[in-house]
């Protein structure tokens, strides 16, 4: 039967075996007190007040003494109510025992309240146990608690942690009265599931509804903006954090550092970092190092690493991942080897597959292809797709087409429909003038029904993100965009630009080839940025692409940076490219 008690207070009901005692219960012990002393005091006073024992269970739970909580529950609470059961379940929330205690609760029989379900959903998320969570969701619907903000926010968290963001959004949309905890759960959940546009939409809706922010909703929105490399969104949320006072919060500050770093503004990221430096944890230091690492600025990464050690903080695996990433992007193989060895010998940390991937990438980028392959074959992990893709890209870049074909075959074992493997190796064969092999690759793609993944590029204008596909004609300024792009192609042709035809993997006519290359998504985004005034004169244009920027666009952007006399920044799936005065900071290697 459903008890009339709730988790906020304990009122006697007919389900209780005895009315409240007339004796005044002892005052609750201080939070810092040893719960065993408080327990002894309760036994000495001969109290039978169930609320005292419920509080003691909670104290044992907070003191990480769950076995004591269970013993007290069994021996001192002959008739537990929903508060008693919830306290016990909370004590075991990080283990599957919480679910077993819940089953016992139902057999008692006692039905859960919104707090019980919230704890259980958190347990299912941490274990994880989606199947049990689905059953709990069904039960919450039956007892009309599924839309309670307390229950629903925990359910949103469960579906987010189990990578079911659509389920999380459905649960959220059914909540009649949403509070700041509900909004924080959906914003963070969507950001963690790589759904940044929806996350920012919910955050915007939260502000329009007048619901207050929390440090979690603000940091989640910043994570979403970082995923899009949406600089203006980062700045807007930063301003909101200042107004609400969250800018001094370390969690929000770390998210700001990450956001500005992923937008390529390491100077702004460093400014936030320096303001919060005394309170920064190793996570914040790692975020700052990662921002420099994306730019290949290994000097700043190593310098920060030393400063972090001087503060007494202990580097972790992510600290070394930032260092190795910086050497990878800079192409410094020897330094990457030394730091991987230091990680193991001097710091007692075992490198993960990601660390070895950075080493393989640094070696292959430096032209040490055989050494990179040797590391991949002898490291204590089974090489995954990113390892072989790093080697494949470097083999193609260095003109070792035979080795590139071998790496492509290894990469295709993981996914026979991986279009990037075919594209890179076909470009390598085309660059070597081996057109028969190019035709063979095209045939393999056709036989396997492999289609080149559609590229998407986006650019931010006045806080709004504009997304473009290849040959996209959906934008309201399509005519202006295409006219501007035609003008740019003519201008860079005068400077010596020649289209990279090897980017075309399918046999089409000369005109079709030209149009296919001309209307790539990043070129359309760039043209739109120029006609719409996306950035003031003297400020860089910023574009993000979901795939690796192709060689033709890369070549074109170098020339366009000369024509428009401004910096163009492109963040593709691999790294940042800064085009200025006809060159790129990647040195044509990515």
UniProtKB/TrEMBL annotation:
Gene3D superfamilies per record: Tetratricopeptide repeat domain
Pfam families: DYW_deaminase, E_motif, PPR, PPR_2
MF-aspect GO terms: RNA binding; zinc ion binding
UniProt GO BP: RNA modification
PPR repeat ranges, renumbered to this chain: 179-213, 281-315
Entry keywords, A to Z: Repeat
InterPro entries registered for this protein in UniProt: DYW_dom, E_motif, PPR_At4g14850-like_plant, PPR_rpt, TPR-like_helical_dom_sf
Residues of the DYW domain: 496-590
Record field: compositional bias (Pro residues): 22-32
Stretches for region Disordered: 1-36
Domain of life: Eukaryota
NCBIfam families: PPR
Entry similarity comment: Belongs to the PPR family. PCMP-H subfamily.
Name the record gives this protein: DYW domain-containing protein
